[in-house]
Write a structure and sequence with these properties.
single chain; alpha+beta; 43% helix; two-stranded antiparallel ribbon; 2 strands
Length: 143
């Protein structure tokens, strides 16, 4: 059995731009030759409509982490959200309640951590400056 496609021709590289021309280049040459110029032009137009338009990103950070056993990649994009605001599927009320509870617990946890860090910093600064708020409170301690 002969292979019609080379492995390199199955999909465009993710690093290069996906254009209608690069996608049409993936077509089998015999099929492409059988199409008229009008058909190719119309196919290019439809592919251009179907391809997502790239949005400018404020931050586009991509890197990978090679471990001994596997490889991980991290991608961070920051930019304007152009997705549809309405979800196509319905979300159960239990999921909504769970999301709210999780958000509240996370906010309370961050608030507690920041408050404790500020209080610890204030105590360390007070101690370093030798300020004693309650004279005689620690009688005998350190003497």
């Amino acid at each position: 059995m002969t292979r019609l496609f080379k492995a390199s021709n199955l999909a465009p590289s993710p690093r290069r731009d996906r254009t209608p021309a690069t996608i049409l280049d993936l077509m089998t040459p015999s099929v492409r030759e059988s199409l008229s110029e009008y058909q190719l032009t119309e196919m290019e137009r439809l592919i251009a409509l179907a391809l997502p338009k790239p949005a400018p990103k404020i931050v586009d950070l991509r890197f990978d982490i090679d471990l001994l056993v596997s490889r991980f990649y991290v991608v961070l994009f920051v930019g304007k959200d152009r997705r549809q605001s309405v979800r196509q599927h319905s979300v159960s009320p239990l999921t909504v309640i769970g999301n709210w509870l999780t958000a509240i617990v996370l906010l309370l946890g961050v608030n507690l951590a920041v408050s404790l860090a500020v209080m610890l910093l204030a105590y360390l600064v007070k101690s370093a400056l030798g300020i004693n708020l309650f004279p005689g409170h620690f009688r005998g301690f350190g003497k």
